[in-house]
Structure prediction request, 143 residues.
Amino acid sequence: MRRILAGLVLAVSAAASLTPASAADDITSRYVHGGGPSCDDWSVLARVTEKFSYQDRHIGGEGIEIASLDNIHQYDPRLERGLVTRRFCTATASLSNGRKTNVAYLIEGPWLATDSLGWHVESCVVGHDPWRVYDTNCRSLRP
Prediction:
C-alpha cells in the first residue's frame, strides 16, 4: 500500500513540475501544506447540513433540520499531520425546532494532492446520534 501511495505521490509531483511555476506553487501551498476547504467553507457547511437532513429523514424521523451553523471553530491543524490533511471543527447548530446544539465535524483531504480525488466530511450533531456511531457527544470527531 505504501508503495502504491508513494508512486502516486511521485506521479503527481512529476505532473506538477510540468505545469507553470505559479500553478505548481498553488498546488503545493493548497495541498501539501494543509490546504483544502476550511471549517467555514460554504461547501463544507452544506455537506454537514445535508448529512443531518438525510439522517433525520432515514433514521431519526423527527422532521428537524439545521437552520444555521454559527460559532465555527477549527482546532489547530498542526495536531494532525500525515498523507491526508485532517481539520477538526466544531460549530453551534440552530435547529428548525428552535433548539441549539453542538456539531463536531472532520474534513479529510484532499486525497493524494489532486482535485479529482477531493475531500470528505464526517459530521455529528450532539444529541442526534442514537447509536453512538461517533461515541458520546461526538467524541471521535474531536482531536
About this structure: The helical segments are 2-17, 21-32, 42-60. Residues 34 and 81 are 8 Å apart (CA to CA).
